[in-house]
Amino acid sequence: MQYFTLNDGHRIPALGFGTYRLNGSAGATAVEEALQNGYRLVDSAAMYDNEGAVGYAIRHSSVPRDQIFVTSKLMGKNHSYELAIKQIQESLFRMGLDYLDLFLIHWPNPKKDDYVEAWQALIDAQKFGLVRSIGVSNFEPEHLTKVIKETGVTPAVNQVELHPYWSSKETREFDQKHGIITEAWSPLQRGGEAFKEQLVKDLAEKYHKTPAQIILRWEHQLDIVPIPKASSYAHQSSNLDIFDFTLTDPEVAAITALDRADGRRLDPAEVEG
Length: 273
Ligand SMILES: NC(=O)C1=CN([C@@H]2O[C@H](COP(=O)(O)OP(=O)(O)OC[C@H]3O[C@@H](n4cnc5c(N)ncnc54)[C@H](OP(=O)(O)O)[C@@H]3O)[C@@H](O)[C@H]2O)C=CC1
Ligand SMILES: O=C(O)C(=O)[C@@H](O)[C@H](O)C(=O)CO
Fold this sequence. Notes:
The protein has ten helices and ten strands. The chain is of the alpha/beta class. It has a single domain (3-256), classed as NADP-dependent oxidoreductase domain (TIM Barrel). α2 (51-60) packs across α3. The chain is globular. 47% of the residues are buried. The structure holds NADPH dihydro-nicotinamide-adenine-dinucleotide phosphate and ligand LYEC3VGP. Residues 18-20, 43, 106, 137-138, 159, 185-191, 210, 212, 227-232, 235, 238-239 line the site of NADPH dihydro-nicotinamide-adenine-dinucleotide phosphate. The site of the ligand O=C(O)C(=O)[C@@H](O)[C@H](O)C(=O)CO has 4 residues, from loops. Substrate binds at residue 106. It comes from Lactobacillus xujianguonis. Residues 15-259 form the NADP-dependent oxidoreductase domain. Pfam families: Aldo_ket_red (PF00248).
């Protein structure tokens, strides 16, 4: 596994495993298999109702805890300082872990406008040793600017929607300029239309790879950390196999040009999550 270094000095795996809709014992099995397959980053959230299953898989894995980068996220209803600290304690308890590697504010909920208070709680949770690194998710440049200006602490990670139809250019560039690692959620556009793009199919044929591998490699070459979810062992393992080929710069630019004005599924200005 390759790694990037975060702005707080910790390391993050260059590719992770998404767990949305992996619940209960089947979810735990999928996470255990992903760890066996070689994944070292597991992305969960209180909203997914699977912190128990994810924690179980991590605790029962033959991979040592200190080699696994575990993420969870704060729910929108818990943005007040006190509720945020309580949720982090509860997330740790459900997972059966002593610390999390990364904890994110899941959505900014800008209409409620309480994300700076939530961010202050994450800053303190890091000081208390509950979490190693702290970051945000679905934050646009205006939200990032506000938390940085009001607390002086820059998030280590911003996890956003990012795939060939929505390359999050403005946010990616802001993140890069401020030393924030961008993670891509729905990096495979949930196995949707992007797989059928002629460009993606042609590149898959050229490099003897699958459309999913071409898209994940494109994200890797943009210095993004994709976190694909896959319930099947076959998809899990092929999604990891992207480190033995390189797209040319024009090929990277051509995939980036598939971006569409209506390519985004969820707008952070509207979602209350
Ligand atoms: N911060 C946020 O707001 C959000 C975070 N996330 C995080 O990002 C993760 C990934 O995003 P997600 O929305 O799940 O979507 P993904 O883009 O990861 O796509 C997952 C879908 O693609 C299929 N798939 C996976 N690999 C392949 C492959 N090689 N070939 C064909 N199909 C494949 C999976 O099928 P199968 O399972 O059958 O293998 C599944 O249906 C989530 O699980 C979650 O952890 C997601 C959304 C929002
Ligand atoms: O999966 C997540 O992290 C979410 O934030 C959800 O909103 C999810 O992606 C979803 O699709 C809800 O429709």
